[in-house]
């Protein structure tokens, strides 16, 4: 099952998505798991902590996945 992470603007840095998903305790830990190659972006291992993530991207960590969705402004 893939959960949704809603962001207000894009791009967002990969480590921030991991923090928002509550997969780690903080930003330092998020940067560590990315740099260790434990995170996938759209099915590919990603080791760049500040890799830009956009609407529709899927981030996976330890068999958990989230899809990034851009918040649509209320009209």
What does this structure look like?
- The chain is of the alpha+beta class and 75 residues long.
- The chain has one domain: RNA-binding S4 domain (Structural Genomics Hypothetical 15.5 Kd Protein In mrcA-pckA Intergenic Region, Chain A, Roll), CATH 3.10.290.10.
- It is 21% helix and 35% strand.
- The protein contains two helices and seven strands.
- The strands form two sheets. Strands 1-7-6-3-4 form a five-stranded mixed beta sheet, with helices on one face. Strands 2-5 form a two-stranded antiparallel sheet.
- A hairpin with a 2-residue loop joins β6 and β7.
- α1 crosses α2.
- It is globular.
- It starts with a strand and ends in a 5-residue tail after the last strand.
- This is RNA-binding protein.
- InterPro entries: S4_RNA-bd_sf.
- Pfam families: S4_2.
- Keywords: RNA-binding.
- Helix-strand makeup class: alpha+beta
Termini Cα gap: 31 Å
Mean pLDDT: 93
What is the string of helix and strand elements? Answer: EEHHEEEEE
Which architecture per CATH? Answer: Roll
Number of helices: 2
The portion of residues assigned to helices is: 10-25%
What is the spatial order of strands in the main beta sheet?
1-7-6-3-4
Keywords: RNA-binding
Organism: Desulfoluna limicola
Protein name: RNA-binding protein
InterPro entries: S4_RNA-bd_sf (IPR036986)
Q: What does this entry show, briefly?
A:
This protein is an alpha+beta fold and 75 residues long. It has helices at 14-20, 27-35, and strands at 2-7, 12-13, 39-41, 44-45, 52-53, 58-61, 64-70.
